[in-house]
């Protein structure tokens, strides 16, 4: 069982117990974070948005850290143009703790509605079909005038 989750504009394949480095999140160490699933696979593949709402991917923030320093150096030969810069990414290490597909049970019909006749009448009134409101007729576009010779 695995899922593909999206965070920070990037997608990651995760399983239960997986740890991953993502762009810095606004959460403290030890906090639980819910990740948005893009795809889920257990016995079959789930990729429909309505079905993905039932997928629950939870992770805990293990630590905040910084990535390796990336050195950038630009120059143009024989021109005296040199630029030097560096960059270090702010990262968050996540550990996936839970990966489940939620299922909902159908609720049984209420016994109270069967006992009260007033409840039956109210339900019948609600289910009555209301006539549809008529839409106003669409306006026709204005007739075009023919262009004359201009003489």
How does this model look, in words?
With 151 residues, the protein is mostly beta strands. Helix content is 13%, strand content 44%. The chain has 3 helices and 9 strands. It has helices at 49-52, 112-115, 117-127; strands at 2-7, 10-14, 19-23, 32-41, 45-46, 55-66, 70-76, 81-87, 90-101. Strands 1, 2, 3, 4, 5, 6 and 9 form a 7-stranded antiparallel β-sheet that branches. Strands 7-8 form a two-stranded antiparallel sheet. Strand 1 and strand 2 (10-14) form a beta hairpin.
Number of helices: 3
> What's the N-to-C terminus distance?
81 Å
Order of helices and strands: EEEEEHEEEEHH
The helix/strand class is mainly beta
Shape: flat
Largest sheet: 7 strands, antiparallel
CA radius of gyration is: 31 Å
Work out the helicity level: 10-25%
Given as residue ranges, the uncertain stretches (5+ residues, pLDDT < 50) are none
The portion of residues forming beta strands comes to: 35-45%
Q: How many DSSP E strands?
A: 9
Note the main attributes of this structure.
two-stranded antiparallel ribbon; 3 helices; 9 strands; 13% helix; flat
Set down the secondary structure blueprint.
Blueprint: E1 2-7, E2 10-14, E3 19-23, E4 32-41, E5 45-46, H1 49-52, E6 55-66, E7 70-76, E8 81-87, E9 90-101, H2 112-115, H3 117-127
Antiparallel strand pairs: 1-2, 1-4, 3-9, 4-5, 4-6, 6-9, 7-8
